[in-house]
């Protein structure tokens, strides 16, 4: 039990610690910050570039670093650094990997060679209301029986549509390359001593032309996107979406990280307030769904230009289920329960144990009502009548405990620890619900409650900016970060020791598919052989000697 492949992707925000004498136009561009952080990571461990994204960096520890910023915004401040964990088979291993990445991000930012005092935040929204954060990934059955046959027929249809889109898009790609080359020649003629960096190529094309080309490519792929959206909403992961929605929506009451909005209202989760659909692509039109299929969109509409055959993996029964409704937790207990509970409930669903599990009637409306109510009194409609978030969590936990007890002891694996810690986290919040002054058990365990308690220490008369500072710096990954300072007084709240974190910073667990990827990176990162990696395979060598090395199946 709870041995499926799981992984986390976390978007980190950077800030300049002391901006009193710095104008906005003098802040470092996001491209510079990202490149300096990457240089610091390269000094920490061997790395190789991504196969489809030259700015992506795969690590010897099994994870990957990606720059989350549009090329047209590279010269502006901001941008997000996304670091993904290796895919692992245990919630405990995943927590250790995530804490090693948090430490790596903090150290790399501190060691970056810029003239600014850079800090990095592991949070879900900034002071301007931009929302980002964390995605969860689980290996799960996309469908069974007749549903699986229908799913595979749709994949084959999408494969044909993909091939047609590829042919139609070729002239547009040729025009794009020709425009870039002409612009590059003109730039060199005007400024012969200026070296043009690869990341600056996008800026060589006139804005109107790049916008027209991007819009044309989107139009070419629109039929594929519409078909993918239909598959995502009506075919793939039907059982998981039906039952997990209630678990994930109510989970905000336990694993939300809290947010102070511009109206000075405290919410359980900024990420939850931004969610606007149950299942969708995630980003194609700016949508923010609970269940994200953007990786499928990338597979069919982006990677197909280099590897049409790579989409064959979409025919497999076990696919990557990505969850966008996820906060970037500082608490070890909340981070562990967040992943462990979903992995365990997925085991229940695949075993047919669904009796008594609540089903939400209006998931998005229910999510916003729960996230807006830190008093935890709101009740939302389910097929069993109106229930509160804590009542829904209690029902899922009771069902999970019953499922674990009915399983032979030698097959339970880490499941007993998952339900124990789930119960501990739920009891912490229930104590607060019974008596609002009883927060002792929740402090350091429940992120949103710890943050709200810290803000409350300032009093009611303090201005919004001072309160928002606590909201943001609670997530700062440095010795000055408020949660890290709090943790120094409560080391008993740590679930991962320094030795485990150091081990996962060097290499992934031996049972992980990332183990082979990490080994290849350590062996070939500094050799004459060119190695470029993807999540499921790597390409090594040059020219005719170039060959593909497959990894064990992963959920990515």
Name the descriptors.
10-stranded mixed beta sheet; alpha+beta; single chain; 3-stranded antiparallel beta sheet; 556 residues
Strand content: 5-15%
- What is the 3D form? globular
The multimeric state of the shown protein is single chain
Question: Radius of gyration from the CA trace?
Answer: 24 Å
Main sheet: strands, sense, barrel: 10 strands, mixed
Percent helix, as a range, is 40-55%
SSE class: alpha+beta
Structural features, described:
With 556 residues, this protein is α+β, with helices and mostly antiparallel strands. Helices cover 46% and strands 14% of the residues. Strands 1, 2, 3, 4, 5, 6, 7, 10, 11 and 12 form a ten-stranded mixed beta sheet that branches. A three-stranded antiparallel beta sheet has the order 15-16-17, covered by helices on one side. A two-stranded antiparallel sheet has the order 8-9. A hairpin with a 6-residue loop joins strand 16 and strand 17. Helix 5 (207-234) crosses helix 8 (294-301), helix 6 (238-255) runs parallel beside helix 10 (363-371) and helix 11 (389-405) runs antiparallel to helix 12 (415-434). The radius of gyration is 24 Å and the shape is globular. It starts with 5 loop residues before the first strand and ends in a 6-residue tail after the last strand. The mean pLDDT is 89.
Give the secondary structure arrangement, pairings included.
Elements: E1 6-16, H1 30-44, E2 47-49, E3 57-59, E4 64-68, E5 80-84, H2 91-111, E6 118-121, E7 134-141, H3 145-190, H4 201-204, H5 207-234, H6 238-255, E8 259-260, E9 266-267, H7 270-274, E10 277-280, E11 289-292, H8 294-301, E12 318-323, H9 332-350, H10 363-371, E13 379-382, E14 385-388, H11 389-405, H12 415-434, H13 447-456, H14 464-473, H15 482-489, H16 498-506, H17 514-524, E15 531-533, E16 537-540, E17 547-550
Parallel strand pairs: 10-11
Antiparallel strand pairs: 1-5, 1-6, 1-7, 2-3, 3-4, 4-5, 7-12, 8-9, 11-12, 13-14, 15-16, 16-17
């Amino acid at each position: 039990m709870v041995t499926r492949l799981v992984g986390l992707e976390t978007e980190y925000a950077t800030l300049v610690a002391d901006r009193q004498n710095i104008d906005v136009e003098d802040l470092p561009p996001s491209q510079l910050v990202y490149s300096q952080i990457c240089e610091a990571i390269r000094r920490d461990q061997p790395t190789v570039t991504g196969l489809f994204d030259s700015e992506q960096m795969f690590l010897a520890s099994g994870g990957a670093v990606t720059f989350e910023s549009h090329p047209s915004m590279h010269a502006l401040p901001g941008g997000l650094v996304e670091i993904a964990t290796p895919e692992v088979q245990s919630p405990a291993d995943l927590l250790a990997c995530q804490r090693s990445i948090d430490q790596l991000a903090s150290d790399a930012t501190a060691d970056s060679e810029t003239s600014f005092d850079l800090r990095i935040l592991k949070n879900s929204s900034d002071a301007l209301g931009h929302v980002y954060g964390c995605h969860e990934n689980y290996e799960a059955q996309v469908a069974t029986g007749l549903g699986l046959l229908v799913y595979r027929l749709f994949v084959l249809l999408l494969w044909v549509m993909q091939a047609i889109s590829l042919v139609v898009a070729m002239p547009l790609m040729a025009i794009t390359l020709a425009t870039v080359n002409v612009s590059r020649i003109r730039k060199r003629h005007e400024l012969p001593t200026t070296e043009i960096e690869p990341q600056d190529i996008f800026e060589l094309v006139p804005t109107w032309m790049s916008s027209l080309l991007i819009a044309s490519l989107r139009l070419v792929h629109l039929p594929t996107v519409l078909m993918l959206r239909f598959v995502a909403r009506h075919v793939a992961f039907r059982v998981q979406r039906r039952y997990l929605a209630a678990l994930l929506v109510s989970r905000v009451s336990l694993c939300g990280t809290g947010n102070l909005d511009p109206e000075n209202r405290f919410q359980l989760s900024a990420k939850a307030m931004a969610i606007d659909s149950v299942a969708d692509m995630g980003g194609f039109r700016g949508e923010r769904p609970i269940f994200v299929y953007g990786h499928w969109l990338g597979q069919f509409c982006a990677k197909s230009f280099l590897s049409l055959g790579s989409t064959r993996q979409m025919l497999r029964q076990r696919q990557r289920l990505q969850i966008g409704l996820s906060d970037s937790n500082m608490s070890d207990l909340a981070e562990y329960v967040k992943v462990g509970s979903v992995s365990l409930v997925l085991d229940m669903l695949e075993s047919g144990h669904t009796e008594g599990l609540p089903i939400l009637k209006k998931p998005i409306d229910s999510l916003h009502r729960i996230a807006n109510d830190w008093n935890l009194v709101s009740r939302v409609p389910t097929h069993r009548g109106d229930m509160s978030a804590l009542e829904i969590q209690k029902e899922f936990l009771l069902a999970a405990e019953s499922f674990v007890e009915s399983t032979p002891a030698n097959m339970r694996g880490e499941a007993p620890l998952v339900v124990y810690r789930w119960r501990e986290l739920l009891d912490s919040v229930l104590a607060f619900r019974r008596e609002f002054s009883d927060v002792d058990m929740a402090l350091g365990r429940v992120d949103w409650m710890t943050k709200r308690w810290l803000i409350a220490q300032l009093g009611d008369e303090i201005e919004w900016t001072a309160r928002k500072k606590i909201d943001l710096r609670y997530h700062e990954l440095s010795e000055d970060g408020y949660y890290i300072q709090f943790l120094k007084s409560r080391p008993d709240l740590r679930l991962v020791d320094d030795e485990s974190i150091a081990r996962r910073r060097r290499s992934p667990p031996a049972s992980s598919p990332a183990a082979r990827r990490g080994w290849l990176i350590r062996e070939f990162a500094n050799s004459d052989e060119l190695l470029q990696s993807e999540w499921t395979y790597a390409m090594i060598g040059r020219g005719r000697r170039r060959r593909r090395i497959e990894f064990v199946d992963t959920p990515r």
